[in-house]
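Quick log. Single chain, no ligands specified.
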Amino acid sequence: MNRFVVLTTLFILNCSISIAQKDPVILQIDDVTVTKSEFLQIYLKNNPNPKFDEASLNDYMELFKKFKLKVIEAEDLGYDTIPKLKKELEGYRKQLAQPYLVDKEKNEELVEEAYYRTLNDVRASHILVRLESTATPEDTLAAYNRIMGLKARIEKGEDFASVAKGKNGSDDPSALNNGGDLGYFNAFQMVYSFEDMAYNTAVGEISEPFRTRFGYHILKVTDKRPARGTMRAAHIMIAAKKTDPEEEIMNASKKVNEIYEKLQNGGNFESLAKEFSDDPSSNQKGGELPTFGTGTSTRMVPIFEETAFGLANDGDFSSPIQTDYGFHIIKRIELKPVRAYDEMKKELQIKVNRDDRAKKTQDSFVQKLKKSYKYKDLRKESIKWFYNNIDTNYFNGNWNANNLTTDEVLFKIDGQTYTQQQFAIYLENNYRNVKKADNFSTINEQYKNWEKETILNLEDTKLTTKYPDYKALLTEYHDGILLYEIMNDKVWQKAINDTVGLKAYFDANRSNYNWNERLDAVVYICSDILVAKQVYNMIQNDTINSKHVLEVINKESSLPLSVKTNKFDVKQTNYLSDRNFNKGINAPYNYDEKYYVVKVNEILQPKEKEFAEAKGAITSDYQNYLEQKWINELFAKHNIIVNTKNLYAVGKGYKKKN
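-> predicted structure:
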């Protein structure tokens, strides 16, 4: 089981004393020990601005003990043997290992290349001839001939966009609308081979055909420019598709222009976005959108992006523009230029390690491992059996190596031998996606893949001893997965599923769940005092309802009035709190640049909530109760020793990195 490093009892006393002095024990739970270096690493990760006074360290140690007790309990109960969790951890382990299984020099070159591309946008159009990765040689040739034919038409003078969206043109369905134009992009926004071709093709030129996992492409580079950085922006959107009836589009246009007029007259953008914007993902955030622009995963339609980047200053807003989604008013919140290389290097490194480009460095890395681990190639004779015994059944998954009676060595590395039987097992398990070819080519390609995979796996087994940071990160993922799963079983889901216990907890703590004073009311939210007075006068007539009031007030515009009907918690509703209301119609009043008219149907006095009314809060409190009860049991179950002298010295010699 993977836990924090346990100090091993050594036979040589001097070595034991030396290790203890270098990395003293801070916490011991039964036979599990946590050293200063381990504790410090976790403490710093969870405290970006660490304090090393006794009070701060004591507080964190209490949290840390609870964390360790839960993880130890999960291990004791065998959570780390659950197949689902083992599979999840293995997935994380592979991701974490990837940066350690590449050629660092080559990798550095790719990071620098990515930064250059982050500084420079490229705009390109493309034509795609779709081709599956498992395509036959015949289908591959047909696709290649087709893309070459399309390229020839363009070189003879036909327009790229017309060819892309014409009959038998691009297989990219978006080409029908954009003629293949992908807009501007830069590093990591396309698959690497596509990005690479775009940056290595001159403006105005057509690339040679190239293949990605989607098929064959040709592209035309239409522009290159310095990257503009990243933009934080907000928008007010009035929804109206271009395919909507003309009357609906006109109404939306009228509404957005009314909002624009309010902004020009000093209206608050965030308030208007909350009140009127039809974008549910941003309206309650004052219209703010995810950051977009250079190097981000968020891309806006071209007219939106051009308008946003065209705003001169933070705080400026645009006149209304129309997209396929409706009408927008855009406000620039903040424009940031591309950061310096030193600031972006770590972020780019992570992206490179996760990207297709990282595979370019593995071959050179494997060559270095071969040299380091004294690789010997012994396959000259032992591989011949495979040349002679692969047949057409292999490509259908019906081949096996039952006829292989020998187990001769194919190569040696790091004192270990790898043999025919191991390669045969690889062949049996990896027949999918293998291109049909002659036996010699098929075996050589598969052997190359197997040898590379085997050597990388060998290095993979050494990572925890070679790289302490990797081991610590792997331990963190391991503990996090176990912690989540056992908390789900012991606390979160248990509280939800234990209906009897939940009800009993409520009955024992009923006085904690109460309604504040509430108003059963209709609230009229008015744009100004004149509208408020008009509403106040209209609702004096009991036969007039809120729907009728809305129709009259908002006849010419949808902006002057909105209505909310509810049982309002007075203390929790900012525009109702700290006011005295009477049953019936209350006089207009001002709050936060709006005017309110409140018609109170009933004043509901404070009272205890029923179980159904308080279930969410009860469940949360019951979860806290179960967790504390469980923690108390764990503390009683285990022997816990904290070495306070070593704990208080944990910050000695620590210097924060800039």
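The first strand starts at residue 25 and ends at 29.
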